[in-house]
């Protein structure tokens, strides 16, 4: 379902880029410059959203931690802008059905299930598993959490089924859960429902265990559950 939503979003971005090109040409900009600015529009949309997140995070989080220099922060922002564009405009809309990595039946090899976050699907892990080479060292699997905008309590059975498939295919007694954002909350819900006998450890990345301000900008029951109490 998410892939279809993101494809529609990508199509709307293309239409907006074409409209911008036509407008810029009409007001007298050289055609090459109008086309260049139009092509940059989808990337710029990701950059603006990330800039808002960066600024909001800096204003809200006042902990005495080391801060990046303006140049280093700009480099991080540019890198994240490109990665966000690639994930939301290429990987998740068009590569969501990529084949699961091959499983080597070896009980001594780490078995890892990757659980994605809000407004994502399993393709968000594709660069990690294939480009990053993790699937060559570990037995890796992924899962899609659906419905996309459903409550977190609707995901435990999906995770449980994925865990059991990975255990059966790999021969591992227990698996590691690597979870991003909302995926960490889904993993906690899974542990409450199904227990921890099949899980060696849970690693969460940017999971809003105490809620997040940005949840008020999202849609669905899961975002309401991630709001700061």
Radius of gyration computed on alpha carbons? 20 Å
Order of helices and strands: HHHEHHEHEHEH
Low-pLDDT sequence parts: none
Mean pLDDT over the residues: 92
How many distinct helices? 8
Helix content: 40-55%
Class inferred from helices and paired strands: alpha/beta
Number of strands: 4
Beta content comes to: 5-15%
Quick one: biggest sheet? Answer: 4 strands, parallel
Shape type: globular
Distance between the first and last residues' Cα: 29 Å
* Sequence of strands across the biggest β-sheet: 2-1-3-4
Structure commentary:
By secondary structure, the chain is an alpha/beta fold. Helices cover 54% and strands 10% of the residues. It is built from eight helices and four strands; from the N terminus they run αααβααβαβαβα. Strands 2-1-3-4 form a four-stranded parallel sheet. Helix 7 links the parallel strand 3 and strand 4. Helix 1 (2-26) crosses helix 2 (31-60) and helix 1 crosses helix 3 (70-94). The relative contact order is 0.11. The model has no long low-confidence stretch (mean pLDDT 92).
Can you summarize this structure?
By secondary structure, the protein is of the alpha/beta class. The protein contains eight helices and four strands; from the N terminus they run αααβααβαβαβα.
């Amino acid at each position: 379902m998410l892939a279809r939503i993101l494809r529609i979003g990508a199509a709307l971005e293309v239409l907006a880029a074409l409209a911008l090109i036509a407008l810029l040409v009409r007001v007298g900009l050289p055609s090459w410059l109008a086309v260049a600015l139009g092509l940059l529009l989808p990337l710029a949309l990701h950059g603006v959203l990330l800039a808002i997140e960066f600024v909001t995070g800096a204003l809200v989080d006042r902990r005495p931690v080391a801060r990046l220099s303006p140049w280093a922060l700009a480099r991080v922002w540019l890198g994240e802008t490109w990665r966000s564009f690639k994930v939301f405009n290429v990987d998740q809309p068009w590569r969501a059905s990529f084949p699961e990595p091959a499983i080597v039946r070896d009980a001594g090899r780490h078995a890892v299930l990757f659980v994605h976050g809000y407004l994502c699907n399993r393709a968000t892990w594709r660069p990690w598993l294939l480009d990053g080479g993790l699937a060559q060292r570990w037995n890796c699997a992924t899962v899609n959490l659906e419905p996309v905008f459903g409550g977190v309590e609707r995901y435990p059975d999906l995770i449980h089924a994925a865990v059991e498939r990975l255990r059966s295919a790999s021969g591992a007694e227990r698996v590691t859960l690597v979870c991003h954002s909302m995926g960490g909350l889904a993993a906690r819900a899974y542990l409450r429902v199904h227990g921890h006998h099949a899980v060696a450890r849970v690693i969460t990345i940017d999971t809003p265990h105490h809620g997040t301000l940005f949840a008020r900008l999202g849609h669905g029951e899961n975002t309401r559950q991630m709001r700061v109490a």
